[in-house]
């Protein structure tokens, strides 16, 4: 029998990709295609759902052709996707009733404020694990029902279907209307304990149950593909951050992955029980394999990490390319007393302070641009530390290893600083494409391409590892100073300034 | 002592002038601003154009600084930049070859390791980014000696009895490497270890570094005395892919 592969589709915010993996979890072929970002108004972000699907079809086909792989050599298709982005389409014609509303879009600001009214942002947190915020799909569906002519009536008659991007792609591929628990966990509409759509939230948001997909596990055969890969099982769906958790083989409670890009997403596996955070983290699904118990996770994100390096490059001009930050930072041995807290649009997890703004603290005549570069890298590390501390407090498990991926992991100095401030081992895996790998793993498990998660663990190899070198007195001293700098960001935006971008 | 050469001074003045005008300047503007007669300015500009220091926009006929000048100042490629661009390719080389991967650049008379990917097994390994290796006793270094005209090594200390210690032998080796386009050595730095490397070039064809694998001779040796051909092809493919990456994006 000829060699078999798993195809992982990653439908992301800026592009669609398809990666083929072999049995050792190695990348065999890649194809990628970008799509248009549509900005109809300030704060509005849309994608053309049909363009997304066309691109997915193209990259799927081209990734096979590039490496002379035939459709019958694909054992299964897995899907990972940008989360929360919302599509509603006609059940008969398949025609979207409106562009896909992207997760970053803030048009639901008013809806969210109205829903929070007297009961506050955390009104549904005990049900869905999330605070009311513009990101999540529920308020976006509500906006569509309120603003697209005749949509509410059609929805109530069951003539249209809703889906996050996983659902849209699976529907196009197989004709089945399903989603997985991780994507459903970002809608606000699913009860994280029962893993079913929740009547209380549906009622409050005015979303008819008839338009919602069936909630399934992250790893099972949803249906068989039609078209180019006709007959191939479509066997996994995971939101991007959840797929990265799975691709990093964070299978045990306490395992944490961190994806370092313009922002940073930290996700901790908390085992089979949902932990409600006392420290400002989100309760979410990690993954669910077929009939096994669902695995939960805590998520904390940091808004400004890589984008602070870009700010140093584009706004201050201290470096001409992002990697040069490391060169500049290595011209000095420490931060020279300088701390930068990049609260550009407030402080997120675990502080949640929209009145905060960024500061550069501790400046003296001694501070050079090298110290500033160092403080920029340290800002990413300390912000990680704050989220990890919150995770440790909520889960009662202490982090011992952080598994990292994303573009910033090329910065060796940052990785060392991260290990120093966390007092934990930091490891980078050999396959940097952990998101696609996670989707491939989940699909491969569902069809028996890989027998069990132990096999996947054996596939995981370290490309590099950093160990703490900082003594604990120094670490505590630096953390103390960082916290002082954080306090200086608070209460900056006063009430009358509130319209100048203090939206979190 | 000979006097200063006026035409070179004038050429330098024109270059300085053009450096302040990224959109380019017309001959008339150049003549007016520099105070040089049009004919004189044109002669200097044409000469500078000939050596690649000035170029003329086809649509407007305006003069601006040429690519040849830019390459003079940017010979140096930041090692951190190189690592960032090479990251995915180095990972897949480690994954395909099953060996540890290093990327090295020239640092004075040594190889500076700017990137290191562990061998994909469960063994305990330590990151050695930042360490220095001898030019003459590693295939990474021999690549730099063969392809980077600035690379040289003042002395040839022996690390094993196989280390090349004669300048003539080293010259023969680097000549052969230039011919082949890749390098290998066995036992020359550490007994029982073999390494295979290939050059990383930027868009101007300048060798900015080398990428290679290193491991036990038993694993890397092929049917003849040399390295396994398949592993050689992985190394050369990775080097070419990174070179393409450096050429694809201007910096």
List the helices and strands and how they pair.
The complex is a heterodimer of chains A (504) and B (251).
Chain A: E1 5-11, E2 15-21, E3 27-34, E4 46-47, H1 49-66, E5 74-81, E6 87-90, E7 100-101, H2 109-116, H3 125-128, H4 137-147, H5 151-156, E8 160-163, H6 165-174, E9 178-180, H7 181-184, E10 190-191, E11 196-197, H8 199-205, E12 214-216, E13 219-224, E14 233-239, H9 240-247, E15 256-260, E16 264-271, E17 282-287, E18 295-302, H10 306-314, H11 324-329, E19 339-341, E20 359-361, H12 369-395, E21 401-405, H13 412-422, E22 425-429, H14 434-446, H15 453-459, E23 462-466, H16 472-487
Parallel strand pairs in A: 1-5, 5-14, 9-12, 15-21, 21-22
Antiparallel strand pairs in A: 1-2, 2-3, 4-7, 6-8, 10-11, 13-14, 15-16, 16-18, 17-18, 19-20, 22-23
Helix pairs in contact in A: 9-14, 10-12, 12-13
Chain B: H1 6-19, H2 27-34, H3 38-50, E1 54-56, E2 63-65, H4 67-73, H5 79-97, E3 100-107, E4 110-117, E5 132-134, H6 139-147, H7 167-180, E6 183-186, E7 193-201, E8 207-216, H8 217-220, H9 229-248
Antiparallel strand pairs in B: 1-2, 3-4, 3-8, 4-5, 6-7, 7-8
Helix pairs in contact in B: 1-3, 5-9, 6-7
Binding site for sn-glycerol 3-phosphate (chain A): 13, 83-84, 135, 240
EC number (chain A): 2.7.1.30
Family (chain A): Belongs to the FGGY kinase family.
Structure described in brief:
Chain A: It is an enzyme of class 2 (transferase). With 504 residues, chain A is an alpha+beta fold.
